[in-house]
Structures are given as structure tokens and as C-alpha cells.
Amino acid sequence: MSERTEPTEAPERVLFVHAHPDDESITTGGTIATLVDAGAVVTVLTCTRGEQGEVIPGELQYLLESPDALGVYRETELATAMHALGVADHRFLGEAKARWVDLPPRRYADSGMRWGASGAEARDILDPRSLSAAALADVAADIAAVIADTGATAVVSYDGNGGYGHPDHIRAREAAQRAAEVMGVDFFEIVPDDAGPIVVDVAPVASRKRAALAAHATQLTIDGDEFALSNGVSQPIGSTESFRRVVPETDPPTLPFREQSVATKIFAGALAVVFGALVGALMTAVHQSSVVVGDIAVPWGLVLALVATTGLIVGLRIVTRGRVLPILAALAVIGTTAILASPTIGGSVIVPANTAGYVWTFGPSLLVLLTIAWPNLPQPQATTRGHRTSSK
């Protein structure tokens, strides 16, 4: 996509990233058809099969008894919608052509959602296979694989709130944006009609967008130029679709530890233990050191030991925005100190039973308790919530 309407010599290659079947038709169906007609190479990537969605037709209510059966049925609806829009390249995230190199196929499940006081919210208990439960790094890597395979020149997905707050929409947006930034590709977010600098006139392809919407019969109904989701609220199909290009940050923020891949977590955990053990050994060796200033013995060794340990633990807490690595480092300090505190064969004691010894022995334990109790700093939240314009 671009902010101009003139055709270019080289066809655009646009990747649309959506969370569930029907999202692509509701929010970008007209743009997809328009790009296809203009000669662009369009790929639609759907992250889940919408297994937790609702079912409108009475004769299909049996699908609610089996999320997998509903997912299979929605696959057929999506295939029909893709045909209506003219899309030849559709993929499900985690499949062979939408998975990072040399990794086995993975199926991302629909996370579902619930309505809370402030809008759509994640469920209290998540299926570990669900999209929003997956590490952001893993999801982004799979999307990056599609970008590399298709040679995409632009990636399109939701705004920062996922349109209306659905956790899968938010995860799809986060991962798509990160993948686009890593791959050096422009990222565009979907915004309300006429609210963005890029407004696509989809009136010429209205019949095809309507046909694509109608294909998702489990999720919505069509009445003339309007459609309604399971809540029964009519919405205009619309003759325009709007987008905004997101300018990437110079230095993308570090992912929280919980969003890292399993391999990264293991490696980081091992490093935290190693550094904790080193700090524990070195600081145990110097914690009894002091210097006499006037008539006062200044315990510089103990001060250095506590400052170094605090710096390690608090630094990890701030950088990782989590508790796992700082606790591992602190436990390594405590464990190393305990080992060195044991009497040697010759009977000498590195950590004697004096004030400095007691402080150094119990100080790191107190830091562990503070690390656990220290609450996470709140992350900025969107100040407005969009209306629900797509289904689960």
C-alpha cells in the first residue's frame, strides 16, 4: 500500500494480517479486492480459525459443541470469502508456509474473550495453544517468515487496540508490526472510516465485499447495505476503508521476558544464574573489607557487596519487566554465599558470625522478597475504545 493512487511499475506485495476468519472481509475486504484488481500481489494471513466464535444460524448451533468443528467450518467460509475477493494466496499462521525456518508446524488457537467494564478483555484462563498466550517473539517470527517468502512491501493489520480490544487482535497487531519493523517493511494500521490519511474507495468492488461478508454466515448477516454480528446491531458495509502508516521507532522497545521465545528464556535464565554466582563469589570475598577513617572503620566491602547485588537484581527487574531473572540471579547469589560460608577443610570461615557476615548473609534474601513484592509498573493504555466492528 502507499499514500498515492497512481500505479507503479513494480506491483505492490501486500500482506494482510488478521486474527480470525471474517476480520479480513469486514475491515479490509474492499481494499483487498481493489489491490487485486490493480495488479498487486496480495497475501492474507489468518492467525486462528476462530474456534471460539459465536454461531448465528439456528441450524448450525451444533458447531458450538466442538470448537474444532467450528474452526473447520469457518475455514470453508474463509475459503469462499477469499474466492469472492480474488485472493489466490491465503495462509494460516503456523502452517508450513507461515512458520519460521526449520520449525515444525504450529496451530494457533482462538483465545476467545469476555466483555468487561472497559470493553473486550482476555479470559481469566487461556488455552496454552491460543494466540494471545503465545510468546510475541514466536508469533512475530512466523509473520516475518511470510514477509520473507512473499517479498511483501507492506503489512496491514489492526490499530494498537486491535479495533475493539480483542486480545487476539492486539497480539496480531503487535506481532505484525514487530515483524514489519524487523524486516524493514512499511506497516499500516486500520483506522475508522475517513479517519486516516489513506482512504480507499471500495464502492467499485462493493458487490465482492458484500459476497465475502455473506460467506461468513456463522458470524454475521447481510441486509442490503448493512451487516450485523451476533449482537444484532446493524452497521453499514461502507464505501471506504481507511489506513494510517505507522512510523517505526528508532529503537523498538525490548520485549518483556514473558514474551520471549523458550530458547531465549533458557539462555537468559542461565546467564542470570552465572552472573548471580559471580557476584556472590566476588562480593563474599570482599564483604569483610574495611578502611579506617579517623576512628571509624568504614565497611566498604559490605557496602560494595550490597550495592552490586542490588544493582544486579533491580537492573534485571527493570530491564526485563518481570520477576523470573532477578529472582534467579538473587538465588544464585544466596546459594554461592551459602556454599562459601561453610567452613573450609582448614577450619577457616569466609563469612564469620559478625555484623557484616549477618548482613551479607540475609541481605540478598531481603532483596528477593522486595523483588517479588515490587509491582509491575502500569503500561500506557489506549484512552479510547473502538466499537466492535468484527467478530471473535
UniProtKB/TrEMBL annotation:
Its EC number is 3.5.1.103. The keyword Lyase does not apply. Keywords: Hydrolase, Membrane, Transmembrane, Transmembrane helix, Zinc. It comes from the Bacteria. The keyword Transmembrane applies. It is an enzyme of class 3 (hydrolase). One of its GO terms (molecular function) is N-acetylglucosaminylinositol deacetylase activity. The chain crosses the membrane at residues 266-286, 298-320, 327-351, 357-377. It holds the Pfam family PIG-L. GO terms for biological process: glycoside metabolic process. This is N-acetyl-1-D-myo-inositol-2-amino-2-deoxy-alpha-D-glucopyranoside deacetylase.
